[in-house]
Amino acid sequence: MQHFRGGLDHWDPAITDGFAKDRPVILFDKAGVASSSGETPRTVEAMADHAADFVNALGLSQLDLLGFSLGGYVAQVFTFRHPNVVRRLMLVGTRPRGGEPPTDPNYRPCATSTDPATGEGTLEAFLYLFFSPSPRGQAAGRAFWERRHRRENDIDRPSSPQTMAAQSAAITDWRQVRGERFAELKSITRPTLVVNGSKDVMVPTINSFSLSQHIPNAQLIIYPDSGHGSLFQYPDLFLSHARMFLEGNNHKSMSRGHCHD
Amino acid sequence: MQHFRGGLDHWDPAITDGFAKDRPVILFDKAGVASSSGETPRTVEAMADHAADFVNALGLSQLDLLGFSLGGYVAQVFTFRHPNVVRRLMLVGTRPRGGEPPTDPNYRPCATSTDPATGEGTLEAFLYLFFSPSPRGQAAGRAFWERRHRRENDIDRPSSPQTMAAQSAAITDWRQVRGERFAELKSITRPTLVVNGSKDVMVPTINSFSLSQHIPNAQLIIYPDSGHGSLFQYPDLFLSHARMFLEGNNHKSMSRGHCHD
Q1: Which pLDDT value is given to residue B248?
Q2: Most buried of B64, B102, B104, B233 (most Cβ within 10 A)?
Q3: How far apart are CA A37 and CA A57, in angstroms?
C-alpha cells in the first residue's frame, strides 16, 4: 500500500522484484489513484474498505501486508478490520492515528510540489522529503530515482489533483486522536515489522517507536542516516530484514529454545 | 563486555558459539570481576581503561565490540577513547551517559538479590529483570537459564560484594549528565548496532532510541515482547541480525545502488 500521490511505478523494483523471487507480489492503485478509475475517498477508513473489496475480488483469504507512509495508515485500519486476513504486517515510514505531526516548515510545499513536465512531484522535493541531507543519503536518493524510472512501457499515470486533495484530507483526519490515544494498536496481534529512517522529516521517526511500543508483537528497525524513504536507501538490507521477518525466524529461534507456548 | 555482576559464563552459548563459527570471540572478566584478580573500579571510565590495557596486552589493533548493559556503558567510553580500534560497535540493553533511569520499584532489590546457595542473583529476580512477564518471555528466560548453566567444569566464580558495590557506584555516576546531554555520542562514527527488548524495566527502552538518534551511523533493532535480555530471548534472530550488521550488508547494498562516496 503506497505513499501519498504514489502509484505502481513508485515502488523500488529492487524490493518488489526481490520479494517476487519467492512469493507472489501484488501492487495496486486504490480507487482514483494513478491509473485506477473511480474517485479517491477522503478518509483512511474508506481507503481500507476499498482495499478489502480488492482483496475479496481476488479471492485472497490471507496475505502479508506492507504499508508505506499513508499506505501504512491504510494497512493499520485494514488490519483492525480484517485481522485474520493479515498473516504478517510491515509498517514502513508511518504513524499511528494521532501520532506526531511533521514540524519541518518545508514539509507542505515539498509534499505538494508538481513538476509541470511530468505531473508528479519534483526530484528536488523528493530528495528532500525521502532521504537524509548527507552526500550518502542524497546519492542513494538519486540511485533510487534512476531505478524508479527504468520502466519504458506501460507506465502508470501520475495521480490527479483530486487524489492529492482527498489523500491530504485523509492525512489531516488521521492526525486526530479518537478515544484513548494508541489504544487500538493493542488489537494488532499479528507479528509486525516497523521500519523507518533515523531522521524522517515527513513522518517523524518517533512515530515508529510509538507503533512498536503499542503493537504487542512488533519488531522495530531504524536505519542510520536516512529519512522517510529508508527502504529505498537500503533496498537489499530492507529486503533481507523483511524476508527474515516474513519467514518467521523469531518463532523458529524460540522453538529451538524449547519454548512451546 | 558483560552486564552488572556478570562473568564469562553469563553469556548465552547460543550466541557466543554462533559468533565463533566464523570469527575469534574474546570474552573477559574485567579487573575484580568473577575469576579476575584485582579490584573493580568505581567508574565506567576506569573500566574502559582496564579494557584498553587488556586489548593492548593481546596486541589487537582492531576489533568488533559488543557491550551489554553496564558493558555497553564501558563499550561507549572505550569507543570515545580508542575510536580507531573499534571496527563496528554493538550496544545491547544499554543507555547513554545521563540517559533515562529505571522507574520500576522492584529494580533495586531484584538487581542485588543473592542466592545463598550460589552467591549469584536468583532465578526469580533474573526472570523479572531480563524477560517480559508473558508466558513466552518467561519460558525463553528459563530456556536461557538452562543454557547458561550447561558448563560443568572450569566454571567462572560469582562476582564479589566488592564488585557489586563498585559497579553500582559506576552505574550511579553514569546517570549524571556531563556537559551537553548526549553530545559525546556524535563522536562515534563507526557503524553501530543498537539492540533492546520492547519493555526493558532495568534500562528503559527509550534509551536505545536515544542512542540510535545521536550516534550518526546507528541502526536500531527492538524485539517484541521482551526485556533487558532480548538477545537471550531471541538468540538466533539476534545472531542473524548481528552477523548481517558485522558483514556490512548496508554498505554492500549502497554500492549496488551506485553510491560511491
Answers
A1: 87
A2: B233
A3: 16
3-class DSSP state for residue B160?
coil
Of A221, A250, A261, the CB nearest to B234: A250
* Angle at which helices A249-256 and A235-246 cross, to 10°: 50
Using CB atoms, pick whichever of B209, B224, B234 lies closest to residue A253: B234
* B236 to A220: CB separation less than 8 angstroms, yes or no: no
CA of residue B116 relative to chain centroid, distance = 26
User: In chain A, what residues touch B205 (CB-CB under 8 Å)?
Assistant: 213
Q: How far apart are the first and last CA of chain B?
A: 33
ipTM, interface predicted TM-score of the complex: 0.93
Cβ-contact B150, B17 below 8 angstroms: no
Work out how many CB contacts closer than 8 A connect A with B: 123
Annotate A136-171 with DSSP letters as a single string: HHHHHHHHHHHHHT---SSPPPPPPHHHHHHHHHHH
Q: What is the pTM assigned to this prediction?
A: 0.94
Helix (H, G, I), strand (E, B) or coil at B193: strand
Segments of A12-169 assigned E as strands: 63-68, 86-92
Distance CA B12, CA B45 (A): 26
Please give the pLDDT value at position A207. 98
Residue that is written with C-alpha cell 524510472 in the block: A149
Residue pointed to by grid coordinates 550518526: B216
H-helix or E-strand spanning residue A44:
helix A44-58
Q: What is the mean pLDDT of residues A177-200?
A: 97
Mutate to test the interface with A, among B145, B219, B258, B261 (most CBs of A within 10 A): B219
**B222 φ, ψ (degrees, to nearest 5):** -120, 130
**Residues of A with Cβ-Cβ distance to B261 under 8 angstroms:** 135-136, 139
Q: Tell me: the pLDDT tens digits for B211-242?
A: 999 999 999 999 999 999 999 999 999 999 99
Task: Choose, out of B131, B136, B254, B255, the residue to mutate when testing the contact with A (most A CBs < 10 Å).
Answer: B254
Residue B71 CA to residue B178 CA, distance in Å, equals: 19
Which residues does A174 contact at the CB level (< 8 Å), separation at least 6?
A: A44, A73, A95, A97, A98
